[in-house]
Here is the input.
Amino acid sequence: MSTLKVSNIQDISNNAAMSISSGVVTFANAAVNAGVGGKVLQVIYASTTAEVSSSSATHIDTGLTAAITPSASSSKILIIYSIQQFMTNAAGFGHLKIVRGSTDLVTHGFGNYAGGSTAMSVSSFQHQDSPSTTSATTYKIQFNKQGGGGSVISQYDDTNGEGVSTMILMEIAG
Here is the structure.
């Protein structure tokens, strides 16, 4: 197996075309992005394995957060996330919420309808946002527990290994 490692890519005229740093791909040459909407300009990946538990209807942070700096105010941000959850001892439901800064964007529901037993699940969702900025923008996922007893644990660490939740932010040219 071979591995190609690069931090910069230049075009034939020795102009910087793309750089890669800390898992972020940035296109430097404006001609690469000019006039073409829908292209992926950069991708940010985040993950967490830190367990967070709640039995409250108040939303709390899952610990899954990532920041992106859009290259144009017309860019869209596609948020894709997957959260591992464990619901203890009771049927019930809860919500997962995407938050940009302090602004709630969208809420998704999840539930355990197993009639009072415990349940492990993975919830995956996606949402497209228009932050209209070129400033660093932070996205995070929050959750709550409603209905029934028990609690919800995000990134539950069972005896078989750690629970992992992930998020991908993609800047899409507008």
